[in-house]
Design brief:
By secondary structure, this protein is α+β, with helices and mostly antiparallel strands. Among the domains are: about 120 residues; about 130 residues, Heat Shock Protein 90 (2-Layer Sandwich), CATH 3.30.565.10. The chain has a 5-stranded mixed β-sheet. Strand 2 and strand 3 form a beta hairpin.
């Protein structure tokens, strides 16, 4: 609207001051034919968004007619503005083509020819003014189009970055929830197995040793209470991502002594050997180490012959864990691919380590290797 109004005012001003049409009696006057043609050349600018090429052709054709009738102006404002809008409207779907160039050149030549015929002399002034004006209009329109495209690209990149960031946050949240759920499974599974072993021992020893049976029941109560606290903490984290105040710290390798004591209280004879200089582990590797030892001792209590040996080795690049226990009659048919071992193998693999379980010479051996800082880059 503003461009059309400015082009109309400027064109009428040029005709009034410098025009020389067939119906114009003198300077400072504007005849009705020149005014009508100027309006016809300017009004199409209002619809440039629908058909920018058509608007440019229409304004240019009317300007050629004005020039042919002898209305001399410095340069045609309406087709100049239309060329600027035509250049702006180009995009990847509608690029600037050879046809566009031919259209602009043809209208320029037609306008210069009509100006020469109307004035009865070579249109040197129109060639300079109109050619320069149209070149500037095209260049300005192209630069404006590129700027708009650049701004649109920046907005698209910002939106894409925001979507990617949101997706990464969702993936991170999902991974964290999966890890927490795995910890819940490991913690509860371990507790249930320990409770089952201790309850069985209490039942078998109740008649011969009531005091020891009572201590086993007390241990079962402690394990159950601790498990309830662990479940409360983990479920709270799953619900809102925050841990409740006063909740126990996440399982870590430093809790190995407590883990051994729990199994010793249930009748499993556990010996622990440690070699190498202790190193600091990444949080994920620390938790994985604890869970792997927990799984190994739980399996030894369920399927073993009453004893287990734990080997903790701090090597130059990784922590190596081994749990070895003799296999009793109940474990004769035990495989090395239980669900618990599958989960521990997945933990180790995700951290860039490994886990192997095998039966050798009547003993079941669980061996794991965990890099100190998780998966190496």
């Amino acid at each position: 609207m503003a461009i059309a109004a400015a082009a109309l005012a400027g064109s009428l001003g040029q005709l009034a001051h410098h025009g020389g049409g067939p119906l114009q009696s003198g300077p400072q006057e504007l005849d009705w034919l020149g005014g009508a043609l100027t309006v016809c050349a300017t009004l199409p600018l209002l619809a440039w968004r629908r058909n920018p090429r058509g608007v440019f052709v229409m304004t240019g054709a009317v300007s050629v007619l004005l020039a042919g009738l002898g209305y001399g102006v410095a340069f045609p404002l309406a087709p100049t503005a239309a060329l600027y809008l035509f250049a702006i409207s180009r995009d990847e779907a509608h690029p600037w083509t050879r046809r566009s160039t031919v259209t602009v050149v043809a209208l320029l030549v037609a306008y210069l020819g009509a100006s020469g015929l109307g004035a009865g002399e070579l249109p040197d002034s129109q060639l300079l003014h109109t050619g320069l004006a149209w070149a500037v209009a095209w260049f300005a329109g192209e630069r404006t189009r590129l700027r708009h495209q650049h701004i649109a690209d920046l907005r698209e990149r910002a939106l894409r970055a925001e979507r990617d960031a949101d997706r990464d946050r969702r993936l991170a949240a999902a991974e964290e929830r999966t890890r927490i759920a795995r910890d819940l499974h490991d913690s509860v599974g371990h507790a249930i197995n320990v409770i089952a072993v201790r309850a069985g021992a209490a039942r078998l020893r109740h008649a011969q040793d009531p005091d020891r049976s009572l201590s086993a029941l007390v241990a079962i109560e402690d394990v159950a209470r601790q498990t309830v606290e662990d479940i409360d903490q983990i479920v709270s984290a799953l619900r809102d991502g925050t841990a409740r105040s006063g909740s126990p710290a996440p399982a870590a390798l430093q809790s190995l002594t407590t883990l051994v004591e729990h199994h010793a209280a249930s009748g499993l004879a556990v010996t622990v050997h440690s070699t190498g200089q202790p190193r600091r582990l990444a949080h994920a590797a620390d938790q994985a180490a604890y869970r792997i030892l927990q799984e190994g001792l739980t399996n030894a209590a369920r399927h073993g012959a009453g004893s287990a040996e734990v080997q903790v080795s701090f090597t130059a690049t990784a922590l190596e864990l081994a749990v070895t226990n003799p296999v009793g009659v109940r474990g004769a048919q035990r495989s090395s691919g239980g669900h618990g071992l599958v989960g521990m193998r997945e933990r180790a693999t995700l951290l860039g380590g490994s886990l192997h379980a095998r039966r050798v010479d009547g003993c079941f051996e669980l061996h794991a290797r965990l890099p100190y800082h998780g998966r190496s880059r």
